[in-house]
């Protein structure tokens, strides 16, 4: 993971642009996957299932779930950052805005193209958001907090959370399909590529001492940056 810059770093304007560009792109990419109708990532399966049951928009449900997950940080002693709080609201609003603007595709080829674009944009949003270093998303913070409190591996905690929300979302009527599988396979490599692509330039002295940022299966966000 990239090392957070100093709060007084001259890179702050770029970091802010990357933060909010990443959040907006994530919201748009999630909406494209919803419109494609071929399957969603685990958390969006859950959001969609709840939205259908409650009669609310998927964006509003995403905001509500993010806020509830953030409350779970309190007993886990997690400390949110600007990116954490912004994550809760910006993504959900952008999901609903994009769904209002983008009509459903007609035919399987159009659905497949929309799914592919959605997954690619999601990967780009990962790189933008993570490299900005403004704090993890609510769901990722839940993962790391449980990891510290239970002593279980990040991989095990992450898998347990994702399987739970995926099963619950499917039971509620969320869309599980080929898109769910493709997302699971593609998001790790895409996140790693775009994290390197959007990494902030390091000062010469710091870059000589610090290792290059990487994203592994253990540290990659569950559904970055929403996670």
Properties at a glance:
mainly alpha; 227 residues; 0% strand
Describe the fold and architecture.
- The protein is 70% helix and 0% strand.
- The chain has 227 residues and is mainly alpha-helical.
- Helix 1 packs across helix 5, helix 3 packs antiparallel against helix 5 and helix 7 packs across helix 8.
> How many helical stretches?
10
Unreliable sequence segments: 206-223
Tell me how many strands there are: 0
User: Please, what is the average pLDDT?
Assistant: 87
| Biggest pleated sheet | none
**Outline, from the CA principal axes?**
globular
Strand content: under 5%
The H-and-E topology, N to C, reads as HHHHHHHHHH
The value of Rg in angstroms is 17 Å
Question: Helix content range of the residues, please?
Answer: over 70%
Gap between N and C termini: 15 Å
Class by helix and strand content? mainly alpha
In short:
With 227 residues, this protein is mainly α. 70% of the residues lie in helices and 0% in strands.
Produce the secondary structure layout.
Blueprint: H1 12-36, H2 42-54, H3 58-71, H4 73-76, H5 82-101, H6 108-132, H7 138-150, H8 154-172, H9 178-197, H10 204-209
């Amino acid at each position: 993971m990239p090392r957070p810059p100093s709060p007084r770093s001259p890179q702050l304007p770029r970091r802010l642009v990357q933060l909010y560009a990443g959040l907006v792109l994530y919201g748009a990419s999630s909406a494209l996957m919803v419109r494609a109708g071929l399957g969603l990532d685990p958390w969006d399966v859950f959001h969609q299932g709840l939205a259908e049951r409650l009669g609310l928009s998927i964006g509003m449900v995403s905001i509500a779930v993010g806020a509830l997950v953030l409350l779970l940080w309190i007993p886990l002693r997690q400390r949110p950052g600007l990116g954490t709080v912004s994550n809760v609201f910006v993504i959900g609003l952008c999901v609903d805005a994009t769904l209002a603007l983008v009509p459903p595709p007609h035919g399987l080829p159009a659905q497949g193209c929309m799914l592919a674009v959605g997954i690619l944009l999601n990967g780009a949003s990962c790189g933008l958001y993570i490299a900005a270093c403004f704090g993890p998303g609510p769901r990722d913070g839940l993962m790391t907090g449980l990891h510290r409190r239970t002593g279980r591996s990040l991989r095990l905690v992450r898998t347990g959370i994702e399987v739970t929300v995926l099963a619950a979302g499917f039971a509620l009527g969320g869309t599980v399909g080929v898109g769910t599988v493709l997302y699971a396979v593609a998001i790790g490599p895409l996140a790693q590529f775009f994290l390197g692509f959007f990494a902030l330039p390091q000062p010469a002295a710091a870059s000589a001492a610090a290792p290059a940022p990487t994203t592994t299966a253990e540290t990659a966000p569950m559904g970055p940056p929403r996670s």
